[in-house]
Amino acid sequence: MLLMAKILIFALSGFLRVAMGFDIGLSTKCVEIPEEMDMCHEIGYSEMRLPNLMGHTSMAEVILKSTTWQHLVHTDCHPHMRTFLCSLFAPICLDTFIHPCRSMCVGVRDSCAPVLACHGHSWPDSLDCDRFPADEDMCLASLTKEYKYLHKVLPKPACQTCPAVEEFFTHKRVLEVFCDNNFAVKVKLSKKRTLLGDQEYNIECQVEFITQGSLLPYETQNMIQQWLLINENCTQKMTQTHRPMVYLLVGKVEEGIILVNQVYRWQRRDSQLTLATQKWRYHKCL
């Protein structure tokens, strides 16, 4: 959900709970949201208050601290992650500071803290949810139940033990693995280094289904991208070089969670995988 530039639009979109706001005073100024803050672009406004709600007084500090969160935002661990973080790092220029509600913080924390833990980090004290106002105050609230009802809830990737990357196998064994799971997708992956020195992983071609299960083609590419980001240690093991490689990811969707259980590196002229995928359409699982 985009943050809007006017209090009226905030209220109409269901984000604001009306009450007394916090006076900004004369010590802050409006500045352009810098290009380096990718996560806060296209959110409904282009100017932010400085100092911000994290106490950052310089743009250099804002950029440095906010960019450490961009990787987590890309995992899409919670639909309000960008809204929550941008309201703190790049608060909208209004006559009052608009804090995120405590309930929004709790929702984001409960969904995204496990992803941070997967990367070896804990939820920071600076984002302790008790510091934010209750929902009856003027603050950014969570989406309404009606909005959630109208939008399909997609399966989500989870932090998991890294699946084995198989390079030597028979087509019969691959068929057995297909039978034990409910999706198999063929993807082409590559990695590159960002300007900040981080690794960034891309799916270079359209996801190709071998077996589909409950997943739909237009949904799967984003979900696979999320899995790669959340389980970055697994992705690093898979993509040893910066040269694009093709992989077959095999897994299950259980209770709304996507788990990748097996990975095959699809080598050029790989007759066993090709044979398995050809035989699959006629194969009957025991």
Q: Which helices and strands occur, and which strands form pairs?
A:
Blueprint lengths: L6 H6 L9 E2 L5 E4 L14 E4 L8 H9 L2 H5 L6 H9 L6 E2 L1 E2 L1 H17 L20 E2 L4 H6 L5 E2 L6 E3 L4 H10 L2 E11 L5 E5 L4 E4 L5 H14 L1 H7 L6 E10 L2 E9 L5 H10 L6
Protein described:
This protein has 286 residues and is an alpha/beta fold. It folds into 2 domains: 7-149, Frizzled cysteine-rich domain (Orthogonal Bundle); 156-280, OB fold (Dihydrolipoamide Acetyltransferase, E2P) (Beta Barrel), CATH 2.40.50. The chain is 33% helix and 21% strand. It has helices at 7-12, 59-67, 70-74, 81-89, 102-118, 145-150, 171-180, 217-230, 232-238, 271-280; strands at residues 22-23, 29-32, 47-50, 96-97, 99-100, 139-140, 156-157, 164-166, 183-193, 199-203, 208-211, 245-254, 257-265. The strands form 4 sheets. Strands 7, 8, 9, 10, 11, 12 and 13 form a 7-stranded mixed sheet that branches. Strands 1-4 form a two-stranded antiparallel ribbon. It has a two-stranded antiparallel sheet with strand order 2-3. Strand 9 and strand 10 form a beta hairpin. The longest helix has 17 residues, at 102-118. It is found in: Secreted. Residues 25-142 form the FZ domain.
Percent in strands: 15-25%
Helix content: 25-40%
**N- to C-terminal distance:** 46 Å
The largest sheet is: 7 strands, mixed
CATH architecture of the largest domain: Orthogonal Bundle
pLDDT average, as an integer?
80
Secondary structure tally, helices: 10
* Outline type: elongated
Number of domains: 2
Total beta strands: 13
Question: Which regions contain 5 or more consecutive residues with pLDDT less than 50?
Answer: 1-26, 145-151
InterPro entries: Frizzled/SFRP, Frizzled_dom, Frizzled_dom_sf, Netrin_domain, Sizzled_CRD
Family: Belongs to the secreted frizzled-related protein (sFRP) family.
Organism: Anser brachyrhynchus
Pfam families: Fz
